[in-house]
Design brief:
It contains twelve helices and ten strands. The chain is of the alpha/beta class. β1 and β2 form a beta hairpin. The chain binds iron/sulfur cluster and zinc ion. Iron/sulfur cluster binds next to α6.
């Protein structure tokens, strides 16, 4: 029989990759401690900073909201209602975020895509076949807008180990040097944009799900209907298989990559090689962008053109 490393009571939770057994009562504190260590290791933020967390109603972002609050940070959240009608996805996910905001007594900013742009994600997906990448652009756009308006200095997201490794795996498969050279759990602030951080990157999807379960977090159980098309899902299936053969593979892969990136960043800083990207004011919305018209406005222009062609 396995016993909890901390309180010695019998336990069913065994973390193979850490060679550690914990009981459901001690498990949440262990997770919170892991997150605290990640924040410290990457110097992500300090309690005095104004932090905004992107929440989706899923287990990762809602768990992170609770973890950061328990660690003593005051974190406001941001939710974007994409208007996904299938399985009432947007309505249910918004409800879960509101429940958590109430539980923590913390502010939640809500943006409604339909109200802001006149279109919902279902319409976007008909005009723009890469729904997930369009969705990412939309989320970042409104997130940047609220960050600027409300003066947040840090934006946190709930990406977990599996998310981060599948992104890394995809970048390696395509040997996409631009993305590989950008991947890091802390992206420093640049003109008008807040610092971006990912405090959950060393916790696997399963570990976060277990945290949500042992901490009684109410989150949306079904996946976004568009996620079935995402290549990250296929990468994750393969990565999970590798992890099942050899526990700790994902963590090892990410840790070694981050060690390499840390060295690379240091060298670039020493040689002053980190180049500032040219920024423009978007010709349509006036938000800062790396092109003359921002990605959000070009996507929405396409969506509007398609709607016009189809009569509204
Ligand atoms: Fe957006 Fe794709 Fe995530 Fe759905 S799965 S919320 S479409 S990024
Ligand atoms: Zn724009």
């Amino acid at each position: 029989m396995r016993i909890c490393f901390f309180c010695k009571s019998p336990t069913g939770i065994h973390l193979k990759e850490h060679r550690l057994s914990l009981c459901p009562t001690c498990y949440p504190s262990w997770v919170e401690d892991q997150v605290a260590k990640t924040i410290k290791r990457f110097k992500m933020f300090v309690p005095q900073e104004k932090i905004l967390l992107a929440v989706s109603g899923g287990k990762d972002s809602l768990s992170l909201w609770q973890i950061l609050t328990r660690l003593g940070y005051v974190v406001h959240a941001f939710y974007i209602s994409l208007g996904i009608k299938e399985e009432n996805y947007s309505d249910i996910s918004k409800e879960k975020c509101l429940i958590m905001a109430q539980k923590l007594s913390l502010p939640l900013h809500i943006v409604d895509l339909q109200k802001e742009s006149g279109y919902n994600l279902n319409q976007v997906s008909k005009a723009y076949y890469k729904t997930c990448s369009a969705c990412g652009v939309i989320k970042r756009y409104f997130m940047n807008q609220i960050t600027l308006k409300e003066n947040y200095s840090v934006v946190a997201t709930g990406h977990n180990l599996d998310d981060e490794v599948s992104t890394l795996f995809g970048n390696v498969l395509r040997w996409d040097e631009t993305y590989l050279n950008r991947q890091y759990p802390v992206i420093p602030p640049k003109a008008g944009l807040a610092k971006k951080v990912k405090p959950l990157i060393f916790l696997s999807e399963k570990q976060v799900a277990l945290y949500a379960l042992t901490s009684e977090i109410d989150y949306i159980r079904h996946e976004c209907p568009y996620s079935t098309h995402a290549s990250s899902l296929r990468y994750k299936e393969n990565l999970h298989q590798l992890e099942s053969y050899n526990a700790g593979t994902l963590r090892f892969f990410l840790t070694n990559f981050l060690n390499f990136r840390k060295k690379q960043i240091k060298e670039q800083e020493e040689k002053k090689e980190i180049k500032e990207v040219a920024l423009y004011l978007c010709s349509s919305c006036q938000q800062l962008s790396t092109s003359k018209m921002c990605k959000y406005c070009s996507i929405m222009q396409k969506v509007a053109q398609r709607a016009k062609k189809n009569g509204g």
